[in-house]
Design brief:
mainly beta; 102 residues; 7 strands; 49% strand; Alpha-Beta Plaits
């Protein structure tokens, strides 16, 4: 259910009894820093294809080789574009998170 309360849109999600809040739609167009973790090793040459995000490699004791993409993207649409690009490359996404607005 979506309710409008002034300039704040509230979405109620009954996922394990939690309620999620979303900020006003204008917040979605702000640039922000994002971090995405994928399984495997993605070559650093794919940075431009992934919105210019930096690509770092790490090893996780539970997942093995992992790649972390991090960086500033102009808006949420660009973030979704990077997720779609990773999907097109058959990269299994472990996590995707918003770090902070810039």
């Amino acid at each position: 259910m979506i309710l409008h309360d002034g300039d704040l849109w509230i979405t109620e999600a009954w996922n394990q009894g939690r309620v999620m809040e979303q900020h006003s739609p204008s917040r979605r167009v702000e640039s922000a820093i994002y971090r995405i973790r994928i399984l495997g090793t993605l070559d650093k040459q794919w940075s431009a294809y992934c919105g210019g995000m930096t690509i770092e490699h790490t090893t996780d004791p539970h997942h093995g080789a992992m790649t972390i993409l991090a960086g500033r993207l102009p808006d949420q649409s660009a973030f979704i574009g990077v997720l779609n690009a990773l999907h097109d490359l058959d990269c299994p996404i472990v996590s995707a998170e918003w770090i902070e607005a810039t």
